Amino acid sequence: MPKIELETSVELYYDDHGEGTPVIFIHGVWMSRKFFKDQLPFFSKEHRAITIDLRGHGDSALVTEGHTISTYAKDLQAFITKLDLKDVVLVGWSMGAFVIWEYLQQVGEANVKGTVIVDELASDFKWPDFPIGAFDLPTLTHFMREVQDNRVDFLRGFIPLMFKEDVAPEEMEWMLEETMKPMTGVASAILFDQSVVDYRSTFPSLSKPTLLCFGKVEKLIPVAAGEHLKEAIANSELVLFEESCHCPFLEETERFNIEVSNFIKSL
């Protein structure tokens, strides 16, 4: 399990297998690189497959500062620079999509061949002009209080919302272990920031190919979010996964891997 130290003395742990086009998988809020356990062996056969734990998540440094999408994007840039990665494909699930859009906003598209966005909205917040958002203020407030006061039970209720089918006990346990790794204050801080960022104004500047992968089951993210992104982002393609909710890479692994692989080969 290699690690890299950024200039800010923050250590990020990652997995790096295979050769070829670098494909970086970026996890969601509270999650970790282990959620892409079924992608690493598949994509490393033909590409350089990389999974990364963002700061404060997974096995990476449990630092208390810098838990904003803006800082996570800066960490991603530093990571790409440190490893001297060229013409990368960025795969962002949930909050990972925000990290990608923030990275593109900060750095531009010059070193990016394409992006894959997995089940995320332009913004999670229900703004007055964005009613399809996932959270309104009362819901966000409730979530933040649950993270502080009732975290294990809250996560045991939240994790099943990411899947169409019931979560097996053994699956629940490793997911719960991973989502409990961020410190409680960190979990609240990044939940708030990732819930109120809004990238609608960024989309007109994007030109590189984008694959949009959305679960058809709408427990968390509506299909309308994918349709909105398809309209807003030029050169994008929307693929719906009929038997998935928020995690098509775990729920329909074979189809997800093939769809993303074919997209990468088309770039």
Automatic annotation (TrEMBL):
Q: Name one GO molecular function term.
A: hydrolase activity
The family database entries (InterPro entries) matched by this protein are listed as:
AB_hydrolase_1, AB_hydrolase_fold, AB_hydrolase_sf
Respond yes or no to whether keyword Nuclease is given for this record. Answer: no
Ordered alphabetically, the record's keywords are: Hydrolase
Please indicate if the UniProt record lists Hydrolase as a keyword.
yes
GO cellular component terms, semicolon-separated: membrane
Domain AB hydrolase-1, first and last residues per copy: 23-256
Q: What is this protein called?
A: Alpha/beta hydrolase
Q: What is the scientific name of the source organism?
A: Sutcliffiella horikoshii
